[in-house]
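Reviewer comment 2.1 asked that we show a complete input and output for one of the modelled complexes. We chose the iron/sulfur cluster case, as it is the one discussed in the main text.
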Amino acid sequence: MSSIMESNPSNPNSQGSNATSSELHQISRLSVIDLGIRALQDAGSEHICKVCIANGGSCCNGCRHLVRGLGCQLRNTSCTAWLCGFLKYLLYETGHLQEWNYFWEQVPGQDYREDFTPEVVFVDNRLSIPSIRELSEALAADLEELARAHIAIGFIITLREKIDKNIDRLDTCRHDVKKQARIKRNIKILSSPFQRFHKALREYQLHGSPSL
Ligand code: SF4
Ligand code: SF4
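Response of the prediction step:
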């Protein structure tokens, strides 16, 4: 884990209203980005990205900070915090989406494809996503198979957007049990073709680690 440094409650007003000053830790902007990238690596996001990009779904498409052969030239808190529908779904099913969202709510200055995050920020919790790489591999394999089976270009990308929209809607109707149930049903239907993923998820929920 990167450097969550000593508690420093000296600037509790700089951001996040949920944290109390006694719990705040000072952390550099670059360390925040490192934490996010490492968490995504532990989650195995690259397996899913590989399939998504091969099917024309890259979220970096058209970005002026993307250099061919070199990748992103502007690491920032915004793009690190942002999750597409597939990654959101992965964290939603494994129970880590709230933790992810809460962590990034503490990081100010996020913008579109760039950030205005101060060089030092204060957070009151760590980002600790366990290794769920096998789950990502399973989801990636499901997506690959779906993309092959559906001739329509962009099938899995449309699916990604639908899942994304439904998971976002869950948050906006937090107090409406009926709506929540309806949206959860939608997510279940949309994700029903993810058979390898669901098998791996059951293993993960039973034993903490899937055996594929
Ligand atoms: S949209 Fe999601 S899966 Fe696709 S490349 Fe971006 S982060 Fe990866
Ligand atoms: S700034 Fe964001 S969208 Fe642009 S290349 Fe970097 S990660 Fe991709």
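The chain has nine helices and four strands. We note this here for comparison with the apo prediction described in Section 3.2.
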